[in-house]
Specification:
Length: about 100
């Protein structure tokens, strides 16, 4: 699993039929200290995460598991919304922007 921050949404009118009614989010990968790490990616969402929230996501075959028994054409999926991160240097609260009215 990887950490990321929801940076936005993707709207696609032409897509694989298995993605109909599924939410696509732009995710910026982050470190446990919440610093940006790498390029943004597009993930399918099974959690209802909103803009600015810290999430964890998976890649590969496991990305399709939340949608079983439907077979979804997906390589990355948001599978959880993070409340806090506990590290050796302390606790980081992962407060999301959706609580402030910004939704994706």
């Amino acid at each position: 699993m990887y950490l990321g921050r929801v940076a936005g949404c993707v709207w696609a009118t032409a897509k694989d039929p298995s993605l109909t009614a599924q939410r696509l989010l732009i995710i910026q990968p982050v470190t446990p200290a919440l610093a940006d790490a790498g390029k943004a990616i597009v993930c399918l969402d099974c959690t209802g995460a909103g803009a600015g929230e810290i999430v964890y996501w998976v890649r590969g075959k496991e990305a399709s598991f939340p949608f079983l028994p439907t077979e979804v054409a997906v390589d990355t999926t948001v599978v959880g919304i993070v409340d806090s991160i506990h590290t050796a240097s302390g606790v980081i609260r992962a407060t999301g922007a959706t609580k402030q009215g910004k939704a994706c």
